[in-house]
Amino acid sequence: xxxxxxxxxLIDFDSESIIEFLDEGILVRYKDLxxxxxxxxxxxxxxxxxxxxxxxxxxxxLGKFISALRFNGKGKNNIGERWNFSAEFxxxxxxxxxxxxxxxxxxxxxxxxSSAWKLHCQDIVRKNTYLKFLKNGVxxxxxxxxxxxxxxxxxxxxxxxxxxYGDGYSTFTGLITGNRFFGKGRNKHGVSWFFLAQRLxxxxxxxxxxxxxxxxxxxxxxxxxxxxLEKQPTSKRSLLLQFSGKLSYSNEKNEQLGVxxxxxxxxxxxxxxxxxxxxxxxxxxxxxxxxxxGINSKGVKWYFDGVRVRxxxxxxxxxxxxxxxxxxxxxxxxxxxxxNKISYLSYYHxxxxxxxxxxxxDFDTHSSNILNLKNNHPSAINYxxxxxxxxxxxxxxxxxxxxxxxxxxxxxGIRKLCQLLTQTKNRIDGTGCIVxxxxxxxxxxxxxxxxxxxxxxxxxxxxxLIQGKMILxxxxxxxxxxSLIACKxxxxxxxxxxxxxxxxxxxS
Length: 508
Prior knowledge:
This protein is mostly beta strands and 508 residues long.
């Protein structure tokens, strides 16, 4: 379970409070859910260890997750006092669906059955396999070649999951801690081994899962018979599969149809319920195609087929993808639409001509806002948002940024600007895709900022957000262009369709 958006009860040595985990390491603390108190709270997690820093560092909590729903450890203050603490999960949004403490089994079951898992095991027979959990207590086990599957059984008790293999020949019992569970396996002869199961990303290349379908769009053809479906469909519809089983269902004019529409997915079968379930249709998904049949509120049967739409283009139209890329314009400003050059909004003039002695007379409002952006001022973030958002013309693009020279600084102003720009026009947040793994010296301090130095200090994560996508790569200030060049090379190597480099300021 991801921590962002979750609320926990923090049980201290002499009090209780509620904490909420927000993005960028921000932590909110409440006496109750309507009474927020304190400020400058932070959090960070590494593996199963968690650190809370409260009241500007006056209080520090060092803990360890003992399950998906609990962590505990030691607290200390700035005068050396120490005490034990614990924290219990209260509520969360898992893939957009709200779950609460009294429904923890429902929440964990949803997490397990909506995802695909990979099992790493010391058992020679079952070294690495893939798992798909079904809601009826069946787990499908696939070997790495995915050519065959075996039906096994699973059950959940509290936060402990048990897998029963071969009619009880062997069992796996493990504790769920968020995106993984681990424990011991044992067969009927008493031989035991350790195992670890890890949740695969939503957009994995192994299985289609419910969580992987969230946000997908489908174009459907409808007909009264199978023969007319092939020759002349009677109507066309579009589906948008949303969080929490919600569904958008529209016609060719993009008019919304039905009320309280919903969907569910299990065992490669998508089922759609319209008008509170008064009519429904279901089909099997294979290779981004779906075919099936439905029945309306009057009991009349009908048939459909369809394809998944990716990046605004249905798979049946993929032959035209290159032509579409050639016609692609990232900006409304023509001079910015050359992907082979690095564009910039304006010049950046340094504050000092001679450090701490002579101020630069060319230092202007634009340059001042860049400095404020570097210092995370909200006014500067809003300023550049108002400048950039109107001139970025395309929907569905991925936004990335050049990370700081220091890996510890992962909440820079330029990152927050990128994230703000992704709040509209179905843009994709790719701010976690380019990651600085080694600190490099600043150019202003005489450091080497060659392209090779950048390439050796950067890596790519979450490549599914990049592959085949149109990328807008932002930097706050560019002087040599080397950081933008290096990041573009990494993005293209990871499979990006096109990368447009853009800086807020070019050093004068």
